[in-house]
Amino acid sequence: MEEVRKEVQNGESRQAETKIEENKVEEDKKTYVERKRWLFFGLPFTFTKYTVTDEVITVNDGLLNTKENDCYLYKVQDVELQISLAERIFKLGTVACYTGDNTHPQLYLTHIRNAKEIKNYILKASEEARRRRRTLNTLNINADDIDEIDT
Asked: What is the extent of the structural domain holding 35?
């Protein structure tokens, strides 16, 4: 009877260790949720929400007719931070993501707070996502013209 209790306790402690390891992995992952803001005073009165995780960028737009667009981070090729004078005054910024996505080759996270931190996170997370998927980021150089040159 005591042996069974010890085995159950050992099993419970192993499960607790596994949960602790899972929590450590989840702590390393970040999630940014930002709202598109009015440029005037940086107030979030728009109905656009941006969510950036370690695998995907999601844009939710609209109040009555809603639209949700996702872009996997491994498809992000380049990220640019654009800050106008008005955005600087209200501590906002625009993050432009140039992607290989068909629906949005240029994805803009417009008038958001913590824009520089989010841009840096997207750069690092997109590189890590490409490594995890073992994909290669290539450029389209319009190689269709090569056949015409060779003939």
From this structure: 29-132
Using an 8 Å Cβ cutoff, are 120 and 63 in contact?
no
What global pTM score does this model have? 0.70
- What is the pLDDT averaged over residues 117-146? 80
Phi, psi (deg, nearest 5) at residue 53: -115, -175
- Structure confidence at residue 43 as a pLDDT band (50, 70, 90): confident
- Asked if 49 and 33 touch (Cβ cutoff 8 Å), the reply is yes
Please check whether residue 127 lies inside any domain of the structure: yes
Q: What is the mean pLDDT of residues 81-92?
A: 94
CATH number at residue 116: 2.30.29.30
**Number of alpha carbons in the 13 Å side-chain half-sphere of residue 25:** 6
- Residue 22: pLDDT over 60: no
Helix (H, G, I), strand (E, B) or coil at 128: helix
The rounded distance, in Å, linking the Cα atoms of 123 and 81 is 11
pLDDT at 39: 84
Evaluate whether 106 touches 82 at the Cβ level (below 8 Å).
no
> In the Cβ-directed half-sphere of 102, how many Cα atoms lie within 13 Å?
0
Q: Which residues contact 53 (CB under 8 A, 6 or more apart)?
A: 29, 30, 31, 32
Domain annotation covers residue 3: no
